[in-house]
Amino acid sequence: MPVLLLITLLVFVLLHAAPGDPASMLLGQENTAADLEQARRRWGLDQPILVQYFKFAAAAATGDLGKSFRFSRPVKEVIAERLPATCELAFFSILIALTLAIPLGVWSGARPNSWIDNVGTSFGLFGISMPNFWLGIMLILVCAGSFHILPSGGRSTYGVAGAPQTGFYFLDSLLDGNWAALKDAMLHVLLPALALGANMVGILMRVTRSSVLDADTEEYVITARAKGLGDRAVLWRHVFSNALIPIVTVAGLELGTLLSGSIIVETVFAWPGIGSLLITGVTSRDYPLVTGVVMMYTVAFVVINLIIDALYAVIDPRIRY
């Protein structure tokens, strides 16, 4: 709770300190001074900033995040509409990252200085060093512009998806049995998921490699090999299972980073998620919307860290003891 209060207060103060008047930006230049003053009074912008913040905090404690200036709707409803798109993008990004990073990191750590270690390390450095917005633009130019094999943006092709039920395109397509919509959604999510997950692949691969290298020199690993266990059994049953703590830590933190880091990627690929919604809120000085989105990101980070702490005891019985 202190973290949540501090983050919301900081965002609230920074938004109000930034130049620009929400009333003049949203109503336009053709409105009179009386119209602008009426809009400020209606949105509560004529009150001191601390009064505005305490009113917002009191309402947020009851689950009310206020009403968006731009959309003239409750912030909760606007976020709820965009959240499934961001969750799907984050899910496929971390799925790609785990599928590529874990095997590469384990094999690189098990065979240091080999050709697979050199390939994995180079791949990891590429992922860490590559800005996701630049990688996204390059993927669009190559895959969509030159070879025309994948769509350049958006979440689906117009008219392919059926009526929304849950807001999750993949789940809705499965529930409807609409395989064309499922394939279309997969094609649209592939490029942004690759652009967003590339950085996580690099970080997770290097952490996995380091953890496997450290665990591989422990006495219980030497004892397992001395007893005649095969290399594969030693690697996956003894080395990898005891190297999971830092891997899970980084994966959980990177999942939170994916949710907030999707802002630029969603803008590049015109993905209708929370990130592009936040950009819209910032450019229009929509204070309730921006603060509500940042609160959602903060809660996600706190919950993910709590889940990671709980997983430690599940992964390592010594911690539970």
Describe the fold and architecture.
It is a single chain. By secondary structure, this protein is mostly helical. It has two domains: 2-61, no CATH class; 83-149 and 195-320, MetI-like (MetI-like fold, Orthogonal Bundle), CATH 1.10.3720.10. It is 76% helix and 0% strand. The protein contains 15 helices and no strands. The chain has helices at 2-17, 22-27, 33-43, 49-61, 75-110, 115-129, 132-146, 169-176, 179-215, 219-226, 231-242, 244-268, 274-283, 287-315, 317-320. Helix 5 (75-110) crosses helix 12 (244-268) and helix 6 crosses helix 9. It is globular, with a radius of gyration of 24 Å.
The CATH class of the largest domain? Mainly Alpha
Biggest pleated sheet = none
Question: Could you give the order of the helices and strands?
Answer: HHHHHHHHHHHHHHH
- Fourth CATH level, the homologous superfamily of the largest domain: MetI-like
* Helix content range: over 70%
| Tally of strands | 0
Tell me what portion of residues adopts beta-strand conformation.
under 5%
Distance between the termini: 29 Å
Outline: globular
Estimated structural class: mainly alpha
Gyration radius from CA atoms, angstroms: 24 Å
Q: Per CATH, what is the topology of the largest domain?
A: MetI-like fold
Q: Low-confidence parts, pLDDT < 50 over ≥5 residues? A: none
> In CATH terms, what is the architecture of the largest domain?
Orthogonal Bundle
Overall domain count: 2
Instruction: Work out the helix count.
Output: 15
In round numbers, the mean pLDDT is: 83
